[in-house]
Design a protein that fits this description.
352 residues; 3-stranded antiparallel sheet; 14 helices; binds zinc ion
Length: 352
């Protein structure tokens, strides 16, 4: 049976405003864990990736080279970017072992083509597609028709196990390309809103020099300020939807081993009780304290490490061996049980 891990459906933006905790994908505790990127960054120095765009008409909305730059930047944000957030909180010594993994020099190698031989539906959709290629650690297929045929929805998703394919991201279309040059006189709603507080000029520079910042982030050598500028830049291109970059970062979150936060009814192991507010919940939010908690507990889990630490999110309790410590809520047992029942009910109500 195939399991898909998807980005938000537009309707869900309204349905998912209530609390949702971080959690790991269930497969993280199974032998399939070796297929997750979190396991790979513990063990490997080089990650390989490939990009396939079988639909000719899609090549104008974003190119393979642009997707490559986005993918590299997104991978840096999941590693160096998380380390920067730990550093910003002044907790790098507490997480010295985690920092060593996240800051390990990571080389990214692009393979010339993806192995598509085990994607029969893709071949059916595009009979002329060249399927020859190698299995990469990250296989990115930008093919809206294939994604729709595969999932029954027009959406993007991550697939861990399907036939003998390598794990892959199926990327649908219709997103904004935050690497493209703005058109003359183009209106950026978010940029206009800050015109009165002096930020408009900086925003304009971000928008017009977008590739430069992407390239900087892709090297993995950037500051907290550049990180904040980077997410601001992406936000400027979002309008009322997502950018390709948003989607890639979100789907890579699954490829690392994190679960969606806008769906409910997940196992309560290795999860927080308190809500998060990052991009595993709302695809247009930056990586947040929630993903920092998620990545630390994920790396611990895959290495069988025990750890108790104060959450990076305000209002969340201590996280003990991957799970938020409910006993520290200081609630009487019956009240706590009621609280957990209510939480579960609310989450079920959000399911779609
Ligand atoms: Zn998702």
């Amino acid at each position: 049976m195939k399991r898909l891990f998807c980005i938000l459906f537009p309707l869900c933006i309204y349905a998912c405003l209530a609390a949702a905790p971080y959690s790991h994908l269930e497969e993280v505790s199974s032998p399939a864990a070796v297929r997750f990127l979190a396991q790979k960054i513990i063990e490997q120095d080089t990650l390989t990736y490939c990009i396939s765009i079988p639909e000719e008409k899609q090549k104008n909305s974003v190119t393979a080279d642009e997707l490559a730059l986005m993918l590299q930047s997104a991978l840096r944000e999941w590693t160096h970017g998380i380390a920067l957030r730990i550093h910003q909180a002044g907790r790098e010594k507490e997480f010295q072992d985690i920092m060593a993994i996240l800051e390990k020099p990571l080389s990214l190698q692009r393979l010339s083509s993806c192995d598509l031989t085990q994607h029969p539906l893709l071949v059916k959709t595009y009979p002329d597609v060249n399927t020859a290629g190698k299995k990469a650690d990250i296989n990115l297929i930008f093919a809206p028709e294939y994604c729709a045929a595969f999932s029954g929805n027009i959406n993007s998703f991550f697939v861990l196990n399907y036939k003998n394919t390598a794990p892959f991201i199926c990327l649908s279309g219709g997103y904004a390309n935050s690497l493209r040059p703005p058109e003359k006189g183009e209106y950026f709603p978010s940029l206009a809103q800050v015109a009165s507080n002096g930020g408009a000029q900086k925003d304009r520079e971000l928008v017009y020099h977008s590739p430069r910042l992407f390239e900087q982030i892709a090297t993995g050598k950037y500051s907290r300020q550049q990180q904040q500028d980077f997410w601001r830049l992406n936000r400027l291109f979002e309008y009322d939807g997502h950018t390709f970059f948003d989607i890639l970062v979100h789907e890579l979150g699954h490829a690392f081993g994190l679960a969606d936060e806008y769906v409910a009814d997940r196992p309560r192991q290795f999860a927080s009780l308190q809500p998060g507010q990052g991009l595993m919940r709302e695809g247009y939010e930056p990586i947040s304290c929630d993903e920092v908690d998620g990545m630390i507990t994920l790396l611990d889990r895959l290495q069988n490490k025990q750890r108790s630490f104060g959450s990076f999110c305000q209002g969340r309790r201590h996280i003990v061996n991957g799970t938020e410590d409910a006993t520290k809520y200081n609630l009487p047992t019956e009240r706590l049980k009621k609280f957990l029942r209510t939480l579960k009910r609310e989450q079920n109500a959000q399911k779609y």
